[in-house]
Amino acid sequence: MKTKWDILFEVVNTLAIAFITFCCLYPMWHVFVASFSDGLRLLNHRGPLLGPLGFTTDGYSIILKMPGIRSGYINTIIYVLSGTAVSMLMTTICSYALAQRGFKLRKLLMIMIVIQMYFSGGLIPKFLLIRGLGMLNTRWAIILPGAIGTWNMLVLRTAFSTAPKELEEAARIDGAGDITILLKIMIPVCQATMAVILLFYSVSNWNAWFSSLIYLPTARDKYPLQLILREILIASFRISEIETDSGTEFSAELIKYCSIIVSSVPILCLYPFLQRYFVKGVMLGSVKG
């Protein structure tokens, strides 16, 4: 039988969780409904926003008609697909090699990798290196320099290290090589961790804009979506209102909300498919038993 203190604890706990959930979800709801609101009414509104203030899609019409949006979407998809594929390939190979106990250079390489995770040469040497390699104003300048995330590599290496050694030993007795063991044993066993790292790389590549700003100074046709939206947001601060085709006054505030939705919704669609791997994958790769 539950005591009155147990019931009180459950009530307080439920209210606390409900309050935290509301604090997390309301900002998303506010941005969503504001993007469908009338610009002038939104500009004059104060306080919570529970629904659209005069439903309209003029904000999205303006955003999608702005120059560079379509090419930005295409470039971002290219960077996400190619960048994530290259990152996963290089991270998987590096993690598997460092997880092998018989690899003599494992400790030395781990020390070098951990040191560069905390200390780097800085932006200027990196820029000079990329320019010296002839990658400036090319897509390779966006894809290759950040191909391996050190933290992601360490997590995946730990996951490979915790995989049952008996499976690997049995495979080697049957004549399997490292490539077969990696593809047939390690990746299926650590698929939860792989899915989480895939999500991390995808989100990172989707949100990246600073590297494009630095390494694509004159290649505007290669700008990703985030950099195009950044220019739109900067320009919107100098715009008080815009006239749409229907004659509705359109504020810069509405441009910002629509830009957030346009840039966020596509990547949010990945989460429902990978969410079930998230907690399991992170814990499996970060705790060694």
Supply Rg: 24 Å
Spatial arrangement of strands, main beta sheet? 1-2
**How large is the share of residues in beta strands?**
under 5%
Distance between the termini: 38 Å
Q: Strand tally, please?
A: 2
Number of helices: 15
Q: What average pLDDT do the residues reach? A: 81
What is the SS-derived class? mainly alpha
- Indicate the low-confidence ranges by residue numbers: 240-249, 285-289
Q: What CATH first level of the domain at 69-221 and 271-286 would be assigned?
A: Mainly Alpha
Give the CA-based shape: flat
Percentage of residues in helical conformation: over 70%
Reported by name, the CATH topology of the domain at 69-221 and 271-286 is MetI-like fold
Largest sheet properties: 2 strands, antiparallel
Architecture (CATH level 2) name of the domain at 69-221 and 271-286 = Orthogonal Bundle
Describe the protein.
The chain has 289 residues and is mainly α. It has helices spanning 4-34, 39-44, 58-65, 69-98, 106-118, 123-132, 140-143, 150-162, 165-173, 178-189, 191-207, 210-215, 225-236, 252-268, 271-286; strands at residues 241-243, 249-251. Strand 1 (241-243) and strand 2 (249-251) form a beta hairpin. Helix 8 (150-162) runs antiparallel to helix 11 and helix 11 (191-207) packs across helix 15 (271-286). The model is unreliable at 240-249 and 285-289 (pLDDT under 50).
